Amino acid sequence: MARFSLLFRLARRSVFRNGRRTVIIVIAIAVALWAMISFAAIMRGAESDMVHSAIFTLTGHLQMHAPGYLDDPAIDHIMDPPSERVVQLLASSEVKAWATRVRVPAVVMSEHDTAGVTMVGIDPAAEKGLSFIAEAVHQGQPLSSAKDSGIILGRALADRLGTDIGRRVVVMSEAEDHSVADRGFRVVGLFQGDREATETGYVFVGRRVAADMLGLGDRVSEVAVMLDDERDLPSFLTRLRDAAPGLDVEPWTVLEPMAEAMVALSQAWIWMFFIVMYIAMAFGLVNTLLMAVFERTREFGMLQALGMRPRLILGQVLLESCILLAAGTVVGLLLTAATLALLHGGINLTVLAQGAEMWGLGKVIYPTASLGDTFGAIAMIAVLGILCSLYPAWRAARRVPVESITRN
Q1: What is the mean pLDDT of residues 347-355?
Q2: Angle between helices 2-17 and 310-342 (to 10 degrees)
Q3: Confidence (pTM)
């Protein structure tokens, strides 16, 4: 302890003796740590937004379909209502919400324009906690039940069709007997989605109304399920497949492959950025610490001449590096906390709406700091600092005292 106390005092005095060099190193470490954690937080926020959008845009954690529906979501690939065994499984405590839907391609027409859409027949009560539509109606009123005869359009679709609440539109689709089915609906509400493609791609009607229009009876297009904890997905998926052997049961990662790919790409970007910052910082630290050692050659020679062993010289240089790393880490964490506090309200991507939507992002990204990313960045910088200090410390410890003292 006495030796450590002595080394600590010497290291502390050396750190504060050259204030400019110390400030440069601390700032370099702080900026690197700030950049790594802040970038990771933004990417994690984007990742979370992509996953949330994929799950809540009518997907859920998993879905059940008739074989062939995912390849051709037409009226030919519909299925009977869930069996009693499936319903019992869906009633378990693991399931947060589930719903049956009628979901078919359709055409919606107003007096001004026509658009291709996906008509989704829903039970409004069952959609709560399952999809965005339960809380997305921002003008007018939502559907009251599966038998509600109204229709809900996206705000962007209503603008394109030149229609509004209270106006009538006609929806056409293929009926169960392959004839053309059409029905007039009165617009009762407009919904707002995270993406324009959502607002223009879907119209919502009551499930019973859609089934009657298409002649489906009690049959449905899909069953969507939201679990209380996504970690239960693998085991629950296996049990649901066993309960419905004739159906196609898939998780959201299969139903939304683009979102899954973007999550993997996001994680790769984070580690690539970490590695780039790691390499850039390594060169800076090695150069700075080497210069600091060369400037103090005579000092280290005097210490060895007075009896300090080489390993203690090595320990002193490493201890100086640890002090600098600790100071830089604290400053970096403070900068990161301030940055994330400033971005607490999110990063608005409205001006980049089309580009952001192409990458599966919403209009606002909320940076999300991860403890794993934070500790990973700190550990990488700590290991880097120690490794970069070993060579300068070894150079300082191996010099012959007489040569060090007499060197000009």
Answers
A1: 59
A2: 60
A3: 0.72
